[in-house]
Structures are given as C-alpha cells and as structure tokens.
Amino acid sequence: MLLRAAATAWLVVLCGGLAACHPSPPQSDRDAGDSASVAVLEGEPITQGELDDWIKESLFREQTDDLAPSEVYELRSRSLQGLLDERIVEAEAERRGVSTEELMRLEREALGPISDEQVTAFYEKNKQRMGGATRDQVADRIRTFLDGARDGDVKAALRKRAKIEVFLEPPRITVAAEGPSFGPEGAPVTIVEFSDFQCPYCARAGAIARQLRERYPTQLRFVYRHLPLERIHPNARGAAEASGCADAQGRFWEYHDKLFANQRALGAADLQRYATELKLDQAAFAQCVKERKFQAQVDRDLAAATEAADTAGKGGLGTPSFFVNGILISGAKPVEDFYRVIDAELARAGAPAAAPAEPAAPAAPAAGS
Q1: Terminal-to-terminal C-alpha distance of the chain
Q2: Residue 30: predicted pLDDT
Q3: Which of 58, 117, 133, 299 is 20 to 30 A (C-alpha) from 203?
C-alpha cells in the first residue's frame, strides 16, 4: 500500500500538479493561475505556481521517506519510462500532424487485424475465467481487448526508433557471491538469492530460477545463500545445513528441489530420507549433518543478509530476496521483472541480449461485461 501511495504521489509530480492529470485549461488560463498571488510575505508575493511546486515536492518527500533506496529507484524508473513513452508518442503525433489517440490507432492498425487464431488461442488459455461463455460469445470482446493490449507493443516500437539516453542508475549493494551456484563465473550478470527452505514464496521462486537458467544459459551466474527465518520456520535451519551436506557431494540443486517439493516434511528423518532417495553417500551425509559441518556457512549467510538489509535501509531482508548485480528485488516477483533488470544490465555491459520470451497473456475480459 505504501508503494502504491508513493506511486500516486510520483504521478502527481509527473503530471505537473494536482489538477494537471485532468483535462487541462487553455495555456493562457494556466499561466494566469500560476502567476496569481495566493499570499504576500513581507511585501513579497507568493504565487500559485510556487505553492503548487512546494506541494509536489512535499508530497513526494512524505510518500517516499519510508521507502528503501531500491524502492524509490523502482518508482522513479517506472515513472521515467512512462514519461518517456508519453513524450515519444506526443512527438511522433506532432510530426505526423495527428492526435496522440489517432497515432495509437494508426499504429495498432499497422500491426494488422487480430486473427481468429489469436482469439481462439487466448480463449483456450483463459477459458476458466470466461464464466462458462463460449468462444463465439466472447470473441468480439477478446478481439477488442487484444487490440487495446497492443498499446504496449506500439510504444515499444516507437521507443526503438527514438534516440534515448537514460542516466538514472539503480542503487547497488555489494553482496558476496559465495555458495552453490549455476552458470559461468565470468557471466556479466550475477544473481545472489537469499532463501528459506520452509518459505512458500521461496518455493515459487524456484520456478523463476529455472526460467532464468533457460533464458540466460551463458550470461547469468545464479548463487544461492541461506536465510532461514527460524522464529517462524523451525525446520529451516536444519534443512539449510543439510543442503550443504548434499552440496559437499555435488548434489545441491537436486536436494534443493527435493526440499522445496516437501516443505511440510523437513524433520531430521525426512532430511536423511531425501538423501537416500537421491542416492547420496548415506554415511557421509549423516556424519556431515550430525557434526553440523555447514553451521558456519549458514551463519555467514545470515550475517551477510543482515548487512545487506542495513545497507538497503530495511529492517531486515524478507525471503526470497535477490541481488541482481547488487540491485535488490524483494519477493517472488513475476519473472518479467527479472528479465527487465537483467536485460538492462546486459545492455550496460554491452553483452548480447537474450532471445525474447513468449509474452504472457493479459488478463481476460469478464464474460458478462
């Protein structure tokens, strides 16, 4: 909710004032309003324009004071993208002598009509959300919906034609990339994940790691570090140390997947059973767990997580937390969020971009509307 409130405040900043997001009065009226005096202090007038500027700055400070630097950056980055898109569309519309609405319509039209195959594919993918309606009953609405959803494609195409230089830099936090990993050590992008084997959100993040591995096979190194939240997950610490014992036998990722697939059964006997199922050396694994050979490593990971949280201005890291070349992504966010950050890092490094992933289907229109 706080981030949403901050986004609203930043929207106010971008719109140029509390009233500017509504239909604008003629320029002459705005100029007259901005220059009108709203008070006089020691003989010096205070104009409405000065007051509005102060309000915008005050609102932004109030709404972002409690945000971590990474969250403020994310807010600015998304808002900057929106501002760039708006200005690119306005400039292209002016060049062609049409309104922005007409430009967007013409650009969507240039992409060609939505085909019957696209409508059918969307319907089949989202059939459960159609309220029992048949494909023919919602075909027109799907077609309209998919056509409107092309605005993002249009803006992306216009953005590619524009000359853009972005100097807004994300805050970065130095986190040692030590722990089980996949991907080449010399990769241009390194992700360090802090995770907890008993955390349900961390289990969902496992799918993200697999998708990233497939999309960036040579461009990404992914490192796993432990952040067992022992106060709420009593078995997480034991699971973390046991995974180290599996890593000692070169089987960390298989054991990692086994633990996340069985989060409700992470007792001592369960941990040994999973080692048996994976055909690990039973005696070596049991001795490793008994001697807590990886206790110190988990302690180091916990200390690193605390240090990173302090640097980020947060009370503590949640699980999962990811550092993409030091850029913090908190929580099991959609994989597209990771693509965006990774692709930007690859561009900064001058490294080849990954092949584009198949776009996710947008939300289906309500069948009864």
Answers
A1: 28
A2: 57
A3: 299
pTM higher than 0.70, yes or no? Answer: no
Angstrom distance (rounded) from CA 218 to CA 246: 25
Q: Which two tokens stand for residue 135?
A: 């494909």
Tallying the residues shown for the chain, one arrives at 369
Q: Which residues of the chain are modeled with pLDDT < 50?
A: 1-24, 357-369
- pLDDT value for 29: 58
Q: C-alpha angle 367/148/122, rounded to 5°? A: 50
Q: From 249, 240, 157, select the one nearest 195 (Cα to Cα).
A: 240
